[in-house]
Amino acid sequence: MSRMLHVLIHMDRHVERATSEDIAKMLSTNPAVVRRMMAGLRAKGFVKSEAGHGGGWQLSSGLDAITLLDVYSAIGKPPLFNIGPNAEHAECGVEQAVDARMEKTLGEAEALLMQRFATITVEDLAEDFDNAVAARKSTAQQNCAGSEQTLRPGSRK
Question: Transmembrane segments in this chain: where (predicted)?
Fold first, then answer.
């Protein structure tokens, strides 16, 4: 999911159109994997694709219209937690009790997470990125200004 969020923000902030090959290079994966992941977003109407020369993937809606829940659904709702029961039919009574409580608790946590995902847009994440870039630039400028103040004319670094 974070990889798809990454792609969507790049498509909005850096490239208007990207081929599956371009995205695959960015994610260090195979173009077929990209096409499979992007297909869900296309089915939801968040991206569109054109085949052939000059084609590729392009956003078809603004990042402010796409929630984390939308992306999670578009990629097929993969399991969120990998700490639940391992066995399909536990025979041990202790394991059954543990599994039952874990399933209930993880289900409650998942419901809360889905509620939160519904309130966060991809634009919110993109703004986090923009703010981080601005903060780095500001810090770099302050560091440069501070070092300039310590240098006197004719002095060496």
Answer: none
